[in-house]
Structures are given as structure tokens and as C-alpha cells.
Write a structure and sequence with these properties.
Strand content of chain A: 5-15%
Distance between the termini of chain B: 55 Å
Oligomer: heterodimer
Shape of chain A: globular
Largest interface: A-B, 51 and 45 residues
Radius of gyration of chain B: 20 Å
Shape of chain B: flat
Radius of gyration of chain A: 21 Å
Strand content of chain B: under 5%
Structural class of chain B: mainly alpha
Helix content of chain A: 25-40%
Number of strands of chain B: 1
Helix content of chain B: 25-40%
Largest sheet of chain A: 11 strands, mixed
Number of strands of chain A: 13
Number of helices of chain B: 3
């Protein structure tokens, strides 16, 4: 490979500051009593107060609940037998995930005052693992329409540069983790909504295999694509969090029955001998792709190749083919999920959500079924590729973070998402930071593996992070108070 | 040479050569779908729908008869095992 030197951000500051402690790091500090969950939560809450007015990461902050849970965690840590996988670890939930007794709005006027009686399955698991909920995080309306400036809550902003968006619907989680307000969060990914903000915020975002994490109690976007997954700063942390939330749920019809897996088990195995299929044509040469993306992704693959992986360029169907299929399915299912409100109070949705979903009312049954048939066709294509390659790699996103433009709300369809194919196929996929644009905004590498091969995904991602330091860099320029 | 995994074209026939629906046609489709929208929101739909219509019309239409759709079958044993669900 002939690879240009990667861009280095002048804004990024490499730091080991406590606010950027990882999940694994906090767990180690707790074990030796070098840190206390209560103090960590207090520090993070103070930091949220400092930056929230400019970043808008939270729809609802839950300080009393967090401190109460932190005190319980502190007690549990005194008795090692009662310690869970995430005891004392602060986290946030995208505000489409139901929380018993805590406002869950879907960032929509439709549910502005909605207080669920039951936790979503994923929140129940985070709680059971000992996690400490700091609050509900900003999203786009029902994890789809946005960014919106006509809702009761402003969109989250990117801490890397003032005036820029964190990207897609798990935007609050992305911004909060990048800004050092949280070490971990749970997002949802229907077409890339975990991975895009991970890319634009310089963090790790994992969309697990469809059906691995329960969707019960998560406000639906698209039933047949929706997944919940971890957003963290490191691959190791993502593996820890996925271990806490994965597992069968009888009450989610899509939930799969699998034996429990230790997602950390293969982290140290390295990449020597692994076959990586490089899907370069999805971004390189596309005029919608930022020119800074291709060289940075190529450099990232060079790092893996130098470590012993075998990288070969492959070809799959064009992104537009995947996107047409996915969007036809999505707007049909999403309209059906919110049909009653569209018929009775359409004015209460934000303009962006209406613009992106109302057309679902006019999709014919045969259109939806042709899209479902196309989906199986494309899923077969991906399955064939994963029979020959351990990992597929491509860009994490086509562009760095975009400038917020409240005056520009007439984009009905975005350019094809480079993340969507793995929602079509249902495979696990992960974005990890791999460099910066010339303007100092994070860029990302996307890795995907065969269904249920999350340990392999983490193995490759972790190996990459052991050889690079992009994930240790943190924003300064967008961190205004 | 690049290894390709693109499956053979499932059928070239699409609906993409059809003329785009006019605003009047979109209003009629919305009415047939039972939507009673304020004028302003109907105007929004007339503006947004053509992009989605073009997308749907690019889908292949001449598949083999035995090409199954994804996700339309859930094993009956999973359905039978479902607990009672509250609304």
C-alpha cells in the first residue's frame, strides 16, 4: 500500500485525565479502593453542569438516582461476592430506552411527559450489573428524524468543534462520551445510529448481531433492524458492556437463544493471519465522501496489515442498493409504529420526522415485500463474503462531523449510509477512531464480522487500539461552558 | 483482481421509468390512505414523497418466484412461548 501520512489534529489532546477514565480503568480503581463510585459520580455530575448548556447531551439528568445507586455500589464493593460486571460504572441511556419512573420522551412532543412503569430489558440488565444511570441522553425524534430545532429539546452538539453536530440519532451518547461526561452509554442502531456518532465524535460504537440484545421497552424505529449496543471510548470497554446487556429475552420476538459468551476472551489474540475484506468502493471515489477519509482508513488498514492481517480489496453491491432496500422497509415499519399519532396529531411531530416518515403511509404492501425479498438477497451476499473473510473493513462514515444548519431542513434522504449494509445483513459492526480530518474532526474505521462473532470483532478492534493512540485523544475546541 | 460477492442481478425490471407522481396524485394517494392532514403538512408530504417514490421504484421487480422475503416468518414455537404482553 502507498499510504500518505495520517492527519494529526491540533485540537486533540492526549490525556489520562480522570474524566476520561475507561470502564476497565474505573473497575480496576474500584477493586483497589483507589476511587469511589460516589466521588466519580459527583465529579461527572459537576462536569455535566459545566458543559451541558453548550453540548445539550441530556434530555433528563438523574443526579439523585445516580448518587443513590453509587452509594449502593460503594457498599457492594466492600463485599466482593456481590459485585456485578459494571458495579459503580456511570452510564447514560439514549432517550428511546424506557426507564421505570424516569421520563422517557423519545425526544418527541408525543411522549413529552411519558414516565414508563417498567424498565427496558437493556436498562434492567445495566442495573442488575451494578451500573449507575446518570441520565437520559439526547437523540433525534424516535431515533430517526433530526437534527430538529422545532422540538422542546435542542439537538446535541459536537465537543470537538463548536457549531458541529455529533451525527445521527445516538448523538447525546456520542457527544457525552467524547466530552468526558460519561465513560459508557447505550445507544440504538437501525441504519448506523450508534456507529455514525461514534465516527463523528471519535469514540467506539458497536451494533451487535440483530437479536443478541433485547429490544423490549425500546421505542421502535424499525422492528426488523433495531439493535441496542454499547458506546464507549475503548473496544475493551465495549466488550465489557456488551457482556452485561447481551442475552435471551422471551419477551422480545427477535431475541436469539445463545450460550453466554465472554466477550473479553479473545482480546489479546492479535490479528496475525486474519483475512480482512476491504470494501473500498463504498467510499473511495464517491464524490460525497470527504477527501480526508480514504487516506486515513487506508492507513488504519495498513496498521492491521503490518500486524499480520491479510487485507484484500473486495466488491459488494453498491450502497444505494442497500439504502433503497433499508429505507423502504424502515419508513413502512416506522409509519406503522406511529400511525395512530400521524392520524390524530401529525402537527406534534417535528418537521424532520414527518418529512422522513409520513411517506411511509403511501408505500404499498408489494413495495414493502419486494424490499424484504431484496433484503434476503443482500444478506446472502454478505454471508458469502463472511465465509471467505474473517472481517470486513470500510470507512466508519463518509464525512467528518457536519456543521449544524437549523435553516436546512429539507433533506428527505441522506446520501447512502456506509453503515447500513450490516443492518440489512444483521451482522455485528463497530466503528473505532482512526484519525482526524485536516479540520481536526475525528474519522473512523468500520469493522464487521459474521453473525455472533463479536469476540472476533473486539479482538481486531482491540489490537488496533493497542497499536494506535487515536482513542486517547480528547476534544478541547468545542468544550465551551 | 478484486474479489466480488455481488450476486447475479435478481432481475433488471424496475419501475424507475414511471413518471413521478404529481402533487395532485400524491394528495389523492394520501386521501385513499385515510390521511386527513392539515394543508401545511400535506404540502410537506407533496415535497418529500417524490424522493421516497424514486427509491421504491428502484427496487427490483422481476425476481424469481421462489425468492423469499426476509423476516416474514418467525418460528411458531417462539410465538407460542411469548409471555402475555401489556400495551
Amino acid at each position: 500500500m502507498n499510504v500518505p501520512a495520517p492527519q494529526r489534529s491540533t485540537a486533540a489532546v492526549a490525556t489520562r485525565a480522570p474524566e476520561y477514565a475507561t470502564v476497565a480503568g474505573l473497575l480496576a480503581l474500584y477493586r483497589t479502593r483507589a476511587a469511589s463510585p460516589v466521588e466519580v459520580v459527583q465529579d461527572l455530575l459537576a462536569r455535566v453542569q459545566k458543559y451541558e448548556s453548550s453540548l445539550h447531551c441530556f434530555v433528563t439528568l438523574t443526579p439523585e438516582l445516580a448518587l443513590a445507586r453509587a452509594r449502593v455500589a460503594e457498599q457492594q464493593l466492600m463485599h466482593p461476592g456481590s459485585v456485578g460486571a459494571l458495579t459503580g460504572i456511570p452510564y447514560g441511556l439514549k432517550d428511546v430506552i424506557n426507564t421505570a419512573g424516569v421520563l422517557t420522551t423519545g425526544q418527541s412532543k408525543i411522549l413529552q411527559h411519558n414516565v414508563p412503569q417498567q424498565d427496558a430489558a437493556v436498562e434492567a440488565r445495566m442495573k442488575q450489573a451494578g451500573g449507575v444511570l446518570l441520565g437520559k441522553l439526547t437523540t433525534y425524534e424516535f431515533a430517526h428524524g433530526g437534527p430538529s430545532w422545532d422540538l422542546p429539546w435542542p439537538p446535541a452538539m459536537n465537543p470537538w468543534q463548536a457549531g458541529y453536530l455529533p451525527g445521527s440519532t445516538s448523538s447525546g451518547p456520542g457527544a457525552a462520551i467524547a466530552a468526558g461526561l460519561l465513560p459508557a452509554a447505550i445507544g440504538t442502531d437501525t441504519g448506523g445510529s450508534i456507529r455514525m456518532p461514534a465516527a463523528n465524535c471519535g469514540i467506539v460504537g458497536v451494533k451487535p448481531t440483530y437479536g443478541l440484545v433485547s429490544r423490549r421497552g425500546v421505542l421502535p424505529n424499525t422492528f426488523t433492524f433495531d439493535t441496542c449496543g454499547p458506546m464507549t471510548r475503548t473496544v475493551e470497554d465495549a466488550a465489557i458492556v456488551l457482556g452485561a446487556i447481551a442475552g435471551h429475552d422471551d419477551e422480545d420476538i427477535s431475541s436469539v437463544e445463545r450460550d453466554a459468551v465472554d466477550y473479553l476472551r479473545d482480546l489479546a489474540l492479535g490479528v496475525r493471519g486474519l483475512r480482512i475484506g476491504w470494501v473500498r468502493h463504498w467510499y473511495d471515489g464517491d464524490d460525497r465522501c470527504d477527501p480526508d477519509v480514504a487516506p486515513v482508513v487506508e492507513q488504519a488498514l495498513k496498521v492491521l496489515e503490518d500486524a499480520g492481517a491479510i487485507v484484500e480489496e473486495i466488491r459488494l453491491s453498491d450502497l444505494l442498493v442497500y439504502q433503497d432496500c433499508k429505507t423502504t422497509i424502515s419508513i413502512t415499519e416506522m409509519f406503522s409504529a406511529y400511525e395512530h399519532e400521524f392520524r390524530t396529531r401529525p402537527q406534534d411531530f417535528g418537521l424532520m420526522f414527518r418529512n422522513k416518515v409520513l411517506a411511509g403511509a403511501l408505500i404499498r404492501a408489494e413495495d414493502y415485500f419486494q424490499a424484504l425479498r431484496q433484503r434476503l438477497w443482500l444478506a446472502r451476499e454478505l454471508t458469502r463474503a463472511f465465509k471467505e473473510y474473517d472481517v470486513l473493513a470500510t470507512a466508519g462514515w463518509m464525512t467528518p462531523a457536519e456543521l449544524a444548519r437549523p435553516d436546512k431542513l429539507d433533506k428527505f434522504l441522506r446520501p447512502p449510509n456506509i453503515t447500513t449494509p450490516f443492518n440489512i445483513g444483521g451482522q455485528p459492526a463497530m466503528n473505532i477512531p482512526c484519525g482526524f480530518s485536516r479540520a481536526g474532526l475525528p474519522l473512523s474505521l468500520q469493522l464487521a464480522t459474521a453473525h455472533f462473532a463479536e469476540p472476533l470483532l473486539f479482538r481486531v478492534g482491540h489490537a488496533y487500539q493497542q497499536m494506535t493512540d487515536w482513542h486517547t485523544r480528547h476534544p478541547t475546541e468545542g468544550m465551551t461552558q | 483482481m478484486k474479489r466480488t460477492f455481488v450476486l447475479p442481478d435478481p432481475g433488471p425490471q424496475t419501475l424507475k421509468d414511471l413518471p413521478p407522481s404529481s402533487p395532485a396524485e400524491i394528495r389523492r394517494m394520501a386521501k385513499l390512505a385515510g390521511l386527513q392532514l392539515p394543508d401545511e403538512i400535506m404540502d410537506e408530504l407533496c415535497k418529500s414523497y417524490p424522493a421516497f417514490e424514486a427509491m421504491v421504484r428502484r427496487l427490483p421487480r422481476a425476481r424469481g418466484r421462489f425468492d423469499e422475503p426476509a423476516h416474514h416468518v418467525i418460528g411458531i414455537e417462539r410465538i407460542a412461548a411469548l409471555p402475555k404482553q401489556e400495551r
